[in-house]
Amino acid sequence: MRYLFLISLLFSNTACIGVKSEETTPPIVDIQSANIVGETVFAIEKIDCKSPHEAFVLFYKGQLQKVQNEQAQITATERYALWYDRSHEGVVETDYWCIPRKRFCSSPIQFSDWGGKLKHGEPSFFNKTWTLATRLVDIPSLISKATQQHCHFSDTAPPPEKTSTSSHPLPNDWPLRIINRFISKNHYLRPNFEEVKTTLNQITDIEALNHYLKSLDPYSKYLPKEQNDFYKERWRQKQVGLGVNILVKNDNLLVVPIYNGPAYRAGLKSPRYLMTLNDKKIVATDFSTFSFLTQLSPGTRIPLLVEDKTKKTKKYTVTVASFKNTSVEYIKEGKHQLIRIHRFYDGETAQLLKTYLLKTIKQGKDIIIDLRYCPGGSLFEAIDAVSLFLPPDLEIGALKNVSQTQPLISIPGQIVKNQTIYVWTSPFTASAAEFFGQVLQHYKQNAVIVGTRTQGKCLSQQMFEFENGSALKLTVFEIGDPDKLPCEGIGMTPDVEIYPENILDNRHFLSKTK
Question: pLDDT tens across 326-335, in order?
Fold first, then answer.
């Protein structure tokens, strides 16, 4: 299993970012006239707004005991988790894979799941505006109205997803039979071979193939040779280029300079939002807008227009040169040192993290792990890294597919025991970086997560490369959090919240860290 590694590509199209909602919600119905003491009701526990058309919901089913003031007391007997996607119709009581697949569906869960504190059969109070008799409404109707009101969704359905106007035919030598087998045998949902075969036999272009793969999960994708070569090059330790990482959040692009790289030497010292590159707007989902980065030669001068949080723009001219794409940096910030993890790179990140941790401990400084700009990387390297904080042989998570569950275990090597650990997060924190933070948050009482809710990317991909140079990026496992729960699309909740507009401000983070 050490050879199965998680790949988080530089341009990962992740849309499930937390949306801040108001705490007050218009009433769904007048409970005093609608509900009767003793009857069965639904009681919504939590609505977590995601994208402009998605939400994660926790709710109970039980018997109404009484109504007083703005509260309804119920005795809960069932608990559910639900993913609401306005582009899908409701499916009630589906299996465990409901949440990671991100449809409109619900699944029964344990009372202790996702931080639940209520016990089975124990009376508890709920907001009466979020409580409604089962005889009056079914789950899809209840959740549709509640989420639209709470998350301020419009009454109209979300617009259809934009598709490319151009078509790229599949190469003549594309390995159809091999891809059929790979998808049915390795995808974590194990789709039926004959159904996959029938579907792929009707596909003639790359756009249609990727549309099918996206119907299985958000991250599986077919990469033509040129695009596959680009991503492989972007993950090399020694590169020729601009010396930046580019991260994606919805339509926002963040450019993160590598210390002492070409962009850093040109004056770009801190992460900024990317406006244009080489006087062109980059679209993360359109490879043609950034494919020119594979053709850069040393000495080429590239204009880079960026914007800070105040909307102030500045242009830098970056001279293309060779640089080392290090996975961890040790950054001085006033009296503090930040250990910034750019990605979890096999065979490097854990060792660099250990070196900087020992240095920080020796200097008597606070341990600050900066994951704000980390889109992930190797899951197993993240396990090695987080084991520096934990005793060995702890079950810290799981890899799951429809047929098996494989536990993830911490390894020997703990060097941090009683020191307080601060972990900085942002909406760009994803995948293996989220797993790293979740494990610390779960097992270390002295770990404090500071920042925003993370992306919620908890599906693990493996690259299958073919003789023609193309590749299939396929989701092979779901990553279960330390509670063995799905976390896809949900993300990690910080202990100390930072408003999204302040995620680039180190000083603001330091003030909240203390």
Answer: 999 999 998 9
